[in-house]
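Quick one - inputs below.
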Amino acid sequence: MTNTEHLLEIEGVSRSFGSLRALDDVNLTIRRNEFFALLGPSGCGKTTLLRILAGFDYPDAGAITLSGQDLLGIRPNRRPVNLMFQSYALFPHMSVEKNVAYGLEREGVPKGEVRDRVHEVLTTVGLLDRAPQRPHQLSGGQRQRVALARAIVKRPLLLLLDEPLSALDKQVRGEMQLELKRLQHEFGITFVVVTHDQEEAMSMADRIAVMNEGRIEQVATPVDLYRRPASSFVGQFIGTGNFFHGSRTEGGVEVPGVGELPGTGQCEVGKAAQLLVRPESIKVVSEGAILKGTVVDSHFYGGASILVVRVPGLAEPVFISRPGSEDIARHGSLGLSWDAAHGFVLET
Amino acid sequence: MPKRRWTGITFWLVIVFLYLPILVLIVMSFNSSDSPYSLSGLSMRWYGELLNNEAVIEGLSNTLIVAVGATAASTVLGTLLAIGLHRHTRSKLLEATALSPAIMPDIVLAIGLLTLFSLIAIPLGLHAVLLAHIVFGTAFVAAVVKARMGQIDNSLEEASLDLGAGQVSTLFRVTIPTLAPGILAGALLAFTLSLDEFVIAFFTNGPSSPTLPIVIYSMVRFGVTPEINALASILVVVSFATVLLAQRLTRLTDAV
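Output:
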């Protein structure tokens, strides 16, 4: 059972609040030195799971081991786990230095060592010159670095981060994304990030668990989540896509109004299904078109353009992505095609 | 701009209405004549006489004993009550019950306490006044501290636990320091309220140890003397300074 690669094992964890099932038989394995993300919409149970790992909540059923040790039997203040709070929760009455030293002092680390370690970690996050200041004198990004330093200085086996970038404005957010990855490598600590922002999870995490209504829908690398979504929820939550509703056939999905569209997937023939095709997988062709339509709108995003194509027989327009600026006139007629391998048939 | 001028006038009328009696009182305290009703010249005479009045000095020391003791006890109890209410209950009824001694009419509390003290045979006296003042002081401190708790990030205490501190350590290192401005403001409030509390002290006190408001009352029964004006002026200044200090401390809070 014990595997040195596996740091954290979550088995059959469930938690209910009254009639609400916040976590429903969650199983998850997180590897050592991994940057792991729990991704899902609000109310999916990701925060409950995080609070259980930190020790502020307990599951109704299930087991959790950290490095082979039963985690649930350890009180929150004795766990080798630290949490970076969404609000940062910096102590307003203490200086930056005191905030960072707090955890080490409670551990009974000798004074000299506390000072050295605090200075070392403040240097790493680039805030040594801010050591005597109070949290309210810092910017949002600096506060976050202090919160991170305060959690990291304890050298936990596992660092939990609750929506770490949500309180920052867009520019600082990009910087902090890179910074978090750098620090994770530098300290060699396993990170578990909770977020509702798929771009944030995709850009930082090694692996992502997509959660919905207390269940884990899929655990995979960002690329696999995008390329091979295991459920229609994952397909919709990750990235953008065109969804065609119909019933499963041998070669794809039979969609009322436009006929059979090619795709592959696990779904049984005859069942209700939907076909997901990513905008960039759709090619514009002059012959052998699967769908035909007219361009009704286009949006230029610098590197790529999105064309909005109205297809007779379909209620929703089809979105396709083209590299560079648009080269197709609006109101022009267009043939669309894609490889069956790029159409994902998902159960509905 | 006529509208603006009218609000200005109303404001000043209210101020005059509120503070004219106090202003008269302070001016008359510097009166040199024996009559409290006619001003003949300015002097510090009555302040001097006040210092030589043994009844006043004794009343003041009794009042200070009660005020300091009640403030100390109600600050501790009130703070714990606020923390308990905040953490362990969402019941509005329980909260109202805990905080109601603060708004209950003094006379109700006074009669209730008097009845209770006689029933369980606690002799009346300064200690009874002290207990009675702790009752409403606790409610006031709890109300002020609870308001402060509402502004504080709940995750601070969790962060302390997460960083390895125990419950007790968290209480003293995180909870109380972040609540400190509220606790101080509550304590100052309890102090000023105890300082000039009359009704409850009148009911629960024994004859041998009158508090200052009771001393003043018995002096006034034979007519107002300028000495009373001097004493009242001192009380006004002390109360006003305390309120200003309390405001200052609560304002400090916002900066943090």
